[in-house]
Design a protein that fits this description.
This protein is mainly α. 60% of the residues lie in helices and 5% in strands. It is built from 28 helices and ten strands. The chain has helices spanning 7-11, 15-33, 59-68, 111-143, 159-162, 165-168, 174-179, 182-214, 234-244, 263-288, 309-333, 348-358, 362-374, 408-449, 455-489, 495-521, 534-554, 557-572, 580-586, 594-611, 617-640, 650-656, 659-673, 683-697, 700-707, 720-723, 731-734, 739-753; strands at residues 43-44, 222-226, 253-260, 295-297, 303-305, 337-345, 382-383, 386-387, 389-392, 760-761. The strands form four sheets. Strands 3-6-2-9 form a four-stranded antiparallel β-sheet. A two-stranded parallel sheet has the order 1-10. The chain has a two-stranded antiparallel ribbon with strand order 4-5. Helix 8 (182-214) packs parallel to helix 24 and helix 20 (594-611) runs parallel beside helix 23 (659-673). It starts with 6 loop residues before the first helix and ends with a strand.
Amino acid sequence: MSEGNNPQNVRTFSQKVRDKANEFAQRREDDDACSPHDSKISITVEDSGLDMLKIPPDFDLAKKHGKSQEIKKFEQWEEGADYCPCCNFPTGGEAIGLCGHTKHFSDLGAGFPLYYQFLKYWIWMLFIGFAISGAYALSENFSSERDEIKDEEEIHNSYIVRSSLGNYVADNDWEDAKDSIQPTLNVIVICILILSYNVIRRMQIRVNRRIDQKVLTAADYTIWVRNLPADTNKEEIEEFFKKYGKVHGLVEIVKTNLAYDFGDFAELIKEKEAIASKKQQVQMYMDENDGKRPEFKTWYGRKRPYPHPSEYEKTLKELEKKIDWCKEQMVDENPKLVGHAFVTMRLQTDAEQTHQLWSVSIFTKLWYIILSKCCGSQQTFQFKGRILSAERAPEPSDVMWENLGVTGAKRFRNTLTTSIATLILLGLAFGVLMLLSLWQEDLKDSVSNQNSRDYNDRFKIGAISMVSALALMVTNALLGKSIRLFVRFERRQTETSYSLSVALKLGLALFVNTTILVYILNSRSEDWYSPGGLIEDVFYIMFANAIIPPLAQIFDYSWYKRRKERKKEIEKGMSCELTQKEANELWEGLPIDLAQSYANVIKTITLALVYAPVLPLAWLLCAFGLWFGYWAEKYHMLKRCVRPNNLGDHMNTVITNLTPYWILLFALSNLAFFSQGSEGYSSEGLVGVCIAAGYILLPVQRIFDTFCSGKDFDRDLTPFDEAQLEFLEDYDRVNPVTQDEANAEWVKTIVAKKGDDTEIRQY
């Protein structure tokens, strides 16, 4: 989560806005004093002169801020409640229990309840897969007459191998495996997965609609317009969408917020904050040392004193002038637009109809443009010679404003670069696993040449499999950190698209590293069921995957490190050099990494589906891993994490829609493992592949949606002018260029709109 999109940064007023709010509040209170009515209105805006650059910080204030940013049932704004003075969030509120329903996460957006619903769905599916196919396969493999060991050197005396298909075909009679009922049971599982996938999609749609109806936000009234020309203005955009926003009638537009290229503006703000912080540190040192300034070493080793605070103050005033000039040039005199605008409409229905009309393909838009020119069609998608794109707007705090100016071509180059870097990392991981595999092969050859029957030799071979599994977990962790840095380089436009890119890239990397590379390293089928072969390697990988990631969250090192840092700073007392802003951030919880969570789920699901046909224990091991991870993540989120930005349903929708491809992967694995070592292919396996592929290629899903469409979604008819009074955020109030003026205007609006008997609290 970038600093610019952190909730408290988005929702905190500047001092200018606080003064404006108090001015309006005082004016209204004076009017009330002369009014014969007993009821009154008040705006509670903390005007405590809070200095976020104060050194040393107020630790009580930092703790209060940390309490206000905890994840809990959101407390209503009430008179007399305790609030954090910097972000105006309540410090109270009822805690969400570990066994509490995930619907309590709906205040965080639909994304979090949908994630936990998706996770529970796959836990149940893996247990059902074991109940239908895995339990019978496990019993048949163990009880097979072929598990009678005729020689003490027989390689199939490993309990792991005996639970697999390898025990059933210990005498290499693969024709019996083809005739087994196991592949047929797997085909039944494929059918159940397809049916349940359509059910979970409908359930998620209902959950998303219920949350969307419960919580109104600015995004419900807004569309995101892209590819605008640089010479446009608000009036032209509003006039165009008023006429062409929907097929019938005119669209009533409330306001339009433009995005600017504020690279220089952002750099000046960062420079100002850094200099102000340094000034505070120097001043504190001088106060404690009788006016003596602190010293620093130059590059050639000579000590020199830091500048006097008055010099810092002079620099800050110059920066203020530059910032004001830059802002004036950017917005008024020479607008530096980046082709993006957020158009807010009076009614949700207008925004929804505009989205539906403009969500057509580029080819349909071109056809309408041709018709408008040749036949006088009244609908067009062209604005000043450009084909526009309009879609549902993300939540205001989800927008990464600093990245909107990055062109599509540059973003494509960055994405290509990060993809190549990811492939290089996978190659390095493959090299590490290859070295361990070669070491294991050498040890196996040594044991074979010496005709050793020593248990210690067998233990060494198994130990290398365990080491390989641990090495895999370490490389997966390194992949996660590296890919996250790579995706930052892509300069995504929203936090959701950033998280989705991380989840998909990392999920694919973990799938390849955990599932595919292990198969490649054990490509010889005759060694699959030997000690240290494919089956044992996969078992230990699944076991480590089920245990290590959840335990890593429960015993999160970064959490204990943060607690230690808090204690250390408190012990420093007046000598603490943290600013108030830094102390507040230190007392916040850890950020939620939902992208990593989705990647881990993708890895576990694909691992189970690829190897379940040959190793029935995969159903149980991976189901346990998801179950353990569910509780570990929920505990971590509720007890240690900071309240995140609102997250919509987009990431969950994209990842849930990968399910048919995972089912096809399971069908291909079922075909491959039951067709090995024999002439021809397993007929049941072919049937399963045809069913899974047919569902993807044929319009089966569309047919299902047609007959099971459910109840139509009725949009709230509350107009924007009334609904905005309850919005925590809006696009103009989080846009770094327009937020000061927008916040002041918003306070003015709510004072004018709210009735005399209604209390207003600024937050």
